[in-house]
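Lab notebook: predicted structure, single chain.

Context: the supervisor wants predicted structures on file for every construct in the current expression panel, including those that have not yet been purified. This is the next one on the list. No modifications to the sequence; it matches the entry in the shared construct table.
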Amino acid sequence: MTYVVNSISDLEALYGLPGETCVAKEINYLSPEYRAMMEASPFAALATSGPEGLDCSPRGDRHGRLVRIVDERTLMMPDRRGNNRTDSLKNIIRDPRVALMFLIPGSGNALRVNGRAHVDADPVLCESFAVDGQKPRSVIVITIDAVYFQCARAIVRSELWNPVHHVDPATIATAGQILARLSDNRVGGPDYDREWPERAKKSMW
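Prediction complete. Output recorded below exactly as produced.
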């Protein structure tokens, strides 16, 4: 006997259908309430898909600057400095479908957006996102197809914002330790960890 669920009908029989509240919350534009949630968020996870597979990339910025709301159907997200892997951008170029999950510190609800994106490297546009004299090399322009809030159960269960349950960084491996182990000590190590804060400070934007 197998318990693998491999059809939509079996899945619906197992879970039932969503209630009206789960359906009513989804719209294809930014309502004033959803706009306020988005503007309050300094962090989002960006999911993309490409020929090599899926990618989910953390995106963070100062409050009110994570995305620019152009209109109720259009968002712009500057591609701030990172590791230059450009996994998300490569995916968007080949498959425009994207998903975003915005987290709001202290709030149980998250905000989810599904849409289509393209990468814009217009120098004038990039300059408009400059911080401390540093501009992004490109901007992700997103057309909203769906937006809705995610109820608080996951965040309540995880106690994500409860400082009592915050992890002591000393109990997990550092980036330098991980790199050293995976590269047979070619890169990483104590020097990497010691130098990273200053290096990140100089290349934050």
